[in-house]
Specification:
This protein is α/β, with parallel strands linked by helices and 355 residues long. The protein has two domains: 180 residues, Glycogen Phosphorylase B (Rossmann fold), CATH 3.40.50; 149 residues, Glycogen Phosphorylase B (Rossmann fold). 46% of the residues lie in helices and 15% in strands. The protein has a seven-stranded parallel beta sheet with strand order 3-2-1-4-5-6-7, sandwiched between helices. A six-stranded parallel beta sheet has the order 10-9-8-11-12-13, sandwiched between helices. Helix 10 runs parallel beside helix 15. The longest helix has 19 residues. The N and C termini lie close together (7 Å). The mean pLDDT is 92.
Length: 355
């Protein structure tokens, strides 16, 4: 089996770390990095820490408007696929890299496998939602992390090629948590103590590109009265500057550069509360038993909300402040998203595809 894997953003590097390691035992994999996340702290460090094979191609597309970025990726990926002639293209998640990889493969009649299929926020204003829906509808294999995802696909008429395998990020997280305990010194470097700080991330366009929402979120974070560690995506920093939000004016918010995966796992595990609009971090907080406040009006990971460990506040400043002060999850912590064997199931399904 000859597989071209498309990655471009840090959550995809994490997922590929698990699947690629298993897949390469029996198949030939060509790893393509679109360059969607191009900052070294958001890209190269992940390949080093997670022992991901170096990409065969780095397309170096970089950031840009959605249409321009996706179009540039589509052109470049199509050239790779014409040269490599894979049996299947493997894509992850819901980014522009995901959609570009799927579209390029579909146009060339190459089979497509989508990891993290079936997720829905039911908010079509989110670029990620469009990417998910379109990718699922051109894919031949749909690897779902939950029963909810399977049901979402059924409602859209997608039943062939659906595999309920659980979430591949669980395997990556458990491996990283053990490494982070031995190798990460981020708490000492930042001068913070376990459970004496909050961790915040913010990157989705619905928050960063809406000045009212952005100001409301930053105002709430600054009013909590506890240290807030804020690893800021380069694009988020630009949006803050455009909004006239100089974070130096908010002394309780400690803006740091994006950190590697091991440091991020350590920060998540030791935070009192996580505040985020990231889908991946919602799950990681749950698996690490850290309460999560999601700065969105909806989430694809509804099971974490139903379990009582994830609270949706949107960008409502009063709701964020109240949640950060008083949110207490229940003692129960049911297992979610499979048994940490998703990587094995994905590799087995790919290898069983007829050539």
């Amino acid at each position: 089996m000859r597989v071209v894997t498309i990655v471009g953003a840090r959550p995809q590097f994490i997922k590929a770390a698990v699947v690629s390691r298993i897949l390469r035992e029996t198949s030939e994999e060509i790893l393509v990095h679109t360059g969607q996340h191009y900052d070294p702290n958001m890209s190269a460090v992940f390949f080093d820490e997670l022992d991901i094979p170096k990409p065969s191609y780095n397309l170096a597309i970089g950031s840009g408007a959605h249409g321009a970025q996706t179009g540039a990726m589509l052109i470049a990926i199509e050239c790779v696929l014409r040269d490599e002639k894979p049996d299947v293209v493997l894509v992850y998640g819901d980014t522009n890299s995901t959609l570009a990889g799927a579209l390029a493969a579909a146009k060339l009649h190459v089979r497509i496998a989508h990891v993290e299929a079936g997720l829905r926020s039911f908010n079509r204003r989110m670029p990620e939602e469009i990417n998910r829906v379109l990718t699922d509808h051109v894919s031949d294999l749909l690897f779902c992390p939950s029963n909810t995802a399977v049901k979402n696909l059924e409602k859209e008429g997608l039943t062939a090629g659906v595999v309920l395998c659980g979430d591949v990020m669980a395997e990556a997280l458990y491996l990283a948590a053990e490494k982070a305990g031995r190798r990460s010194s981020v708490l000492e470097l930042l001068g913070i103590e376990p459970k004496r700080y909050l961790l915040a991330t913010l990157h989705r366009a619905e928050n960063t590109d809406d000045l009212e929402r952005l100001r409301s979120i930053i105002g709430a974070l600054s009013s909590i009265g506890e240290p807030v560690i804020f690893p800021a995506h380069p694009r988020t920093r630009g949006c803050l500057r455009s909004a006239g939000l100089e974070l130096a004016a908010f002394p309780s918010i400690h803006v740091i550069e994006p950190v590697g995966y091991l440091d991020m796992v350590c920060l998540t595990q030791n935070a009192r509360v996580v505040l985020t609009d990231s889908g991946g971090l919602q799950k990681e907080a749950y698996w690490l038993s850290t309460p999560c406040i999601t700065l969105r009006d909806e989430t694809e990971w509804v099971e974490t909300v139903e379990a009582g460990w994830n609270l949706l506040t949107g960008a409502n400043g009063a709701a964020i402040l109240a949640a950060a002060t008083a949110f207490l999850p229940p003692n129960a912590h049911p297992p979610l998203y499979g048994d940490a064997t998703a990587g094995l199931q994905i590799a087995a399904s790919l290898n069983s595809m007829p050539l």
